[in-house]
Amino acid sequence: MDKSLQDQLLPLRQRIDQIDAEILDLLNRRAFTAQEVGEVKHKHNATGPVLRPERESQVIRQLQELNRGPFPSDGIASVWTEIISSCRSLEQSLTVAYLGPAGSFSEQAAFEHFGHAVTGLPCASFDEVFRAVEGGAAQVGMVPVENSTEGAVNRSLDLLLGSPVKILGERSLLIRHCLLSKAGDMKNITKIMAHPQALAQCQNWLNREYPGIPRESVSSNSEAARLASLDPTCAAIASDIAAHAWGLKIVAPGIQDDSQNRTRFLAIGHIENLPSGQDKTSLILAVPNRAGAVYQMLAPLSEHGVSMTRFESRPARNGQWEYYFYVDVEGHAHDERVKKALAVLASHCAFFKLLGSYPAQS
Ligand SMILES: O=C(O)C(=O)C[C@]1(C(=O)O)C=C[C@@H](O)C=C1
Q1: Which atom of ligand 1 is nearest to the CA of 84?
Q2: Right CATH number for 51-174+261-271 from 3.40.190.10, 3.40.50.720, 3.20.20.80, 3.40.640.10?
Q3: CA of 115 to the centre of ligand 1 (A)
Q4: pLDDT, tens digit, for every residue of 187-238?
Q5: Percent with pLDDT over 90 in the chain
Q6: Which residues surround ligand 1 with Cβ inside 6 Å?
Q7: Would the CATH topology of 178-252 be identical to that of 274-359?
Q8: Is the pLDDT of residue 318 over 90?
Q9: Which atom of ligand 1 is nearest to the CA of 83?
Q10: What is the interface pTM, i.e. ipTM, of the complex?
Q11: What is the phi-psi region of residue 222: left when phi exceeds 0, alpha when psi lies from -120 to 50, beta otherwise?
């Protein structure tokens, strides 16, 4: 390296080393304090959860508001997610269930949301994720609920209807699909495998580039990657992380038809969040099948000034053309306006289920 460059870099790097040592010292002070918090919680409720999603989101939001830069605001969220994750792990271990195998987008969402100091529990299906959380094999789970290209993930919605679990949080992930194979080309490929949602999200690209190769639906993209790692005649659509996890090469990156293709995941568990100051509340509602019923069902929201951020319907499967409506609103169920609106909804609707209030992802 050039001598004058080295002379200039050396003191700056020494300063960085000094600052890092100070940060480390502070991190250990934080970790000790978190351990104390853990002891207080343990004394109060020996078997209760340590995880407090609303507090975690407040810590990050507070710092983002305090930040004067140049450290990027997004960096604060990812750095503190990991700091909190590590501190939390000193209080109690956290197992997160998600659709596997390794390298799935659900796994990515789980780690982005809860940080990496958790134990992953990859499951074979969404049903198994719910079962793991309901039965206690995992304290929390991560499931996709909607995609910006393909819409609702119906199985997750149906499971939310029947399960006692609560929604604890949300995480939106930019989904970049890659075409993967063992050899890194498509020479001997006889089929392309992926989750049906991924095949749908890449259909224009596939029709254009490989119209003659049959496509096969499998339970997840990372499962497709696992199968492709065992069979050189199969290609998979999955993430670059899955490529790495299963020893595959990228034939083509970013093949999703919409470059802004995003999936929204929900964190599920047994915790009831307190208000964080910037929350969302998710509900399932149903009304009898008659003219004007849906309009009347939603009226209490606007009457109490509560904004709806999502409205989705699923057939009730009773042959009566009746539907369950999945509604997200701004605010926490304890907020005065939301509370009043929900009380009216609960008394007027034929079916009312509060899925949970949770910090909105900013
Ligand atoms: O404040 C708490 O309740 C803590 O346990 C500390 C802490 C943190 O590291 O900031 C860790 C875990 C909780 O989910 C929330 C916050």
Answers
A1: 9
A2: 3.40.190.10
A3: 13
A4: 999 999 999 999 999 999 999 999 999 999 999 999 999 999 999 999 999 9
A5: 92
A6: 34, 37, 50-52, 55-56, 59, 84, 87-88, 91
A7: no
A8: no
A9: 9
A10: 0.99
A11: alpha
